[in-house]
Amino acid sequence: MRQILTVANKEFHDGLRNRWLISITLIFALLSIGLTYFGAAASGAVGVASLSTTVASLASLAVFLIPLIALLLSYDSFVGEQESGTLLLLLTYPLSKSQLLLGKFIGQGSIIALATLLGFGSSAILLYFQLGDIQVLTSFSVFIVSAILLGLSFTAISYLISLSVSEKSKAAGFALITWFLFALAFDLALLALLVGVEQGITQAGLTQLMMLNPADIFRLVNLSGLDSSDVNGALAVAINASLSQGQLFSALLAWVALPLSIAIFIFKRKKL
Amino acid sequence: MSTPLVSLTDAGISYQQLDALKSVTMHLNQGEVMGLFGHNGAGKTTMMKLILGVISPSRGTVEVMGMAPDSKEAWHCRSKVGYLPENVSFYEQLTGLEVLTYFAKLKGFNKKQAIDLLEQVGITHAMKRQVKTYSKGMRQRLGLAQAFIGEPKLLLLDEPTVGLDPIATRDFYKTVDQLKSNGSSVILCSHVLPGVEQHIDRAMILSTGQLLAMGTLADLRQQAALPVAIKPFGLNGSVANDSKLNGFLTANCPNTLLVPEQEKMKVLRQLISHEGLDDLQVETANLEQVYQHFLSEHESGEKK
């Protein structure tokens, strides 16, 4: 455990040193405060929009940003150290491969988690003072926890990439493709399936398909509780057949644990 | 000296078709310094990885401190092993002290030991600076400090003196001698370097994954049967007329006698009996020549 914490501590400090924490926090805070205040601009008014509109806009924003940031933060975790030779050196230390991987995960995961908490938490507090509604805090807690899980999931996925390739530039390329697939292409494909193939898919089937994408699970978690007027696309259909929040959170958790376990498995078999 | 610290028995490793290391048998005793020589791709690094337990042998056995280094039981032995990889660039954005503290902590030591080690390798003045500002020599010193963490029982150093200036090289060998007298064993891996001879007990020569020769330098010299070069001064051609001596002269170096080791004293006595002799230079084959000899012998053997 001491070894894991040593690695985690180093990774966390790297995140501080590289200004990752501060810049992610700022991006999240600025965007969310902006959306909170000007989210109603589309309907012609400036001022605090309704809670459901705010959460809906924040969720659609986070679903693109968080995976991208997590992938950027972690894609070179292993391939970078492999290129500089420190990975080989670390493995001659009394440090197992899973300890190294979990240490990195805890360190980089904390950066993402902390940035999400601070960034989005700030607008939650702001909104709470404006609306004075306790509902704000519960909605935002769900949003922040699921956003953290989404970030952790993509951190684990980027370890998979980082361990499977042998060059940093390749890892960057794969990270970008992964982001494109999960954040954009997957939904377009679902929509195409829904529109193009008549009677091709049931509502329940669609929801099950959405479990294959952590970004969609995140959307389901945050949008299922809202008025459907704020939600459109494939999601609106899926929401009607929605699963319980508990099931959705378990699915997100699985999307953290599964890639992480596979990453450990790949790392153990990796030849150096 | 009961059991050897490191022993390889017919150990070999292959990747698909390629034999990175053919069967190698070697033993390293406590307090012994072994030089491991060979050109690029000879299998030096592969052998080090085997001993470190980062890779497992395809055949044969490897034992370090009585255990297979890739097994779980050998885990606690790892903090007693120091390794300097050939190409390593430490975390550039960290300071020297931060890098060394990180590695020291992973071996169960603290910042204080890290500072002491930086002092030992002589980069205390730069320890608060980021590694990216370091020169090649300073990086190498940092790497050495890293390998010395926790006074290891076994040190594996891959090209330790690359990038070091002569004074740093001398300091480095001093440290090796000191570690040796404390009972540590060292495996020094390098291309042949001038100056390494006095500091190693035995040498191993590898080529394309094969062990060509192993032994003390004297043993190797004897095996190679390289002649001693004797250069007399002031004889003005009387050597060529001396029937006992002119047989040792060769066409390309007319003033030098190339004498087999066992004939050396006889020839010297004969030379001294000449009145005109002013001076004598006797040169035994150095490590580099011995190395060249084994390599070229191996190559010509392969052609047949």
UniProtKB/TrEMBL annotation, chain A:
One of its GO terms (molecular function) is ABC-type transporter activity. The chain crosses the membrane at residues 20-40, 46-73, 105-128, 140-161, 173-197, 248-267. One of its GO terms (cellular component) is plasma membrane. The keyword Coiled coil does not apply. It holds the Pfam family ABC2_membrane_2. PANTHER family: ABC TRANSPORTER PERMEASE, ABC TRANSPORTER PERMEASE PROTEIN NOSY-RELATED. This is ABC transporter permease subunit. It comes from Colwellia demingiae.
Automatic annotation (TrEMBL), chain B:
PANTHER family: ABC TRANSPORTER ATP-BINDING PROTEIN ALBC-RELATED. The keyword Transport applies. Residues 6-233 form the ABC transporter domain. The keyword Nucleotide-binding applies. One of its GO terms (molecular function) is ATP binding. Keywords: ATP-binding, Nucleotide-binding, Transport. This is ABC transporter ATP-binding protein.
